[in-house]
Each structure stands twice: as C-alpha cells, then as structure tokens.
Amino acid sequence: MGTLNGKVAIVSGAGRGIGRAVALKLAAEGARVVVNDRDEAPAVETAMEIRAAGGEAELCVGSVTDADFGERFVGAAVDRFGALDIIVNNAGYTWDNVIQKMTDEQFQAIMDVHVMAPFRILRAASEHFRAWAKAEAKDGREVFRKVVNVSSVVGLGGNPGQVNYATAKAGMVGMTKTLAREWGRYKVNVNCVAFGFIRTRMTAPIGSAADGGEMRKAGVQPALLETLERDMIPLGRLGTPEEAAGGVYLFCTPESNYISGQVVTVGGGITF
Fold first, then answer.
1. Is 165 tagged catalytic?
2. What distance in Å separates the CA atoms of residue 85 and residue 253, rounded to the nearest whole number?
C-alpha cells in the first residue's frame, strides 16, 4: 500500500526528464496517473512502464499550449478514473536570448507554456474541486487535494539571457500563492517547487547528443556546468530527475495536508 493509494494524478510533460520521474514516483506510491507529453512515443513509454509495474495510467497526448488542453487533461482523469486528487504542472522548455535580441514570439511562447497552460489546467479543475469539496463537507468528510506547480531558481533570482523564462517562473510563484488562498476552503493544498540544476535535456552540455539539437535549443555551456558544481551547488553536483521528483512527491503526501502556499527550492542547497 503506497502513500498515494487510490489517488488520481495528472502530470504534464511526463514523457521525459523530471515529468517522467514524477509520474513514475506517484504511480509507485499507488496513484493512478494521466500521462501527458506533446509527443506520443515518450508518453506511451512512460504509461507502459507504469502499467508494467502494476500501476494504472491513461494518456493525454498533445501540447499544453492548445486552447482546449486544460479541459482535455482534467477530463481524461475524471472520465477514466472518476476523480482528480493531484495536479503537477511540469511541462516546459527554454528559449533564451538577451532582451535586445529577444522577439515577441520568444517571450510569448515561454509565457504560454509556463503560465497560460497551468492557468487553463487549474481553471478546468476548479469546478470539480468546488463541487467535490462541498459534497464532502456536507458529509462531514475532510479530503485534501494537491497542486504542485513547477518553478525554478531562475524565477526566484533571475538569470541573464532568460528574461522570458525568469518572468514566467516568477509568475508560477504568484499563481501558487493566490490559489492557496482561494482554494484553502476547498481543502486544496497549492505549493510550488523551484528546481535548481537537474540533469535533463535542458541542462545537457551544449553540442552533446543529449541537448536534443532542437530549434529552441536546450543545454548549458560545459564550463558553466563545471562552475555550478564546483562553486554554486553546496552538494557539489546537479540533481537527478528522481531527486527532483522527490521534491514534488513531498507536496503530494498526506503529511503536507497543513502546508500550502509555499515555495521550496529543490537544488542541492543552491540559493539566489
């Protein structure tokens, strides 16, 4: 019996990296998981791994930036499993440039994926949460649900060349704190994890096979990675996706039922 046995979770961007690790962790603890990725193949792979381990998974393939995605994502959980207990807003990417070279398209694209998409997902869940909470209160039951929004240390302290990403990730902090106030009466804990530097495609050395080679290029200069590990991260290394997932999981457990509106940095001790 896992700590999340019987719960239903939706995890955006769960086909790769941190999102995949989160989906697998929640499933391992007993949650039934709706897996999202914009690409079908990695989403299917994550879902198959959950099922192979004896868990339950549903797919919701597509871009979180689609106007109807929030309703589809929430609906996938409610239609398949009849409930929704955990929302993890994880999907995202970076598209960097200094401000004088950054286009409107670059800025808006990052705002859309990191702010607008979570907003639409949470808005889609709101009426379900309200109705369920009222019914539970009428029955004299206290049922807690969880929202974990993903931010970044960049959203807390800024970073040159990432005005779009830093602005969006700072926005997730404001969204978290506001919804913690709005949804407390519905017994919904809304918290935020601000990741430091985790070993994913976004932090792979630029020019390596792992950086993806995409137009919106991920990756970090190798010299910067060395400096981070030597001088900036007290634990002396980048984190793993599984360690990042552990930070999300903490906010999904019953032990966090009296914690809401908080931002926790998961970054090996890094501070800004």
1. yes
2. 11
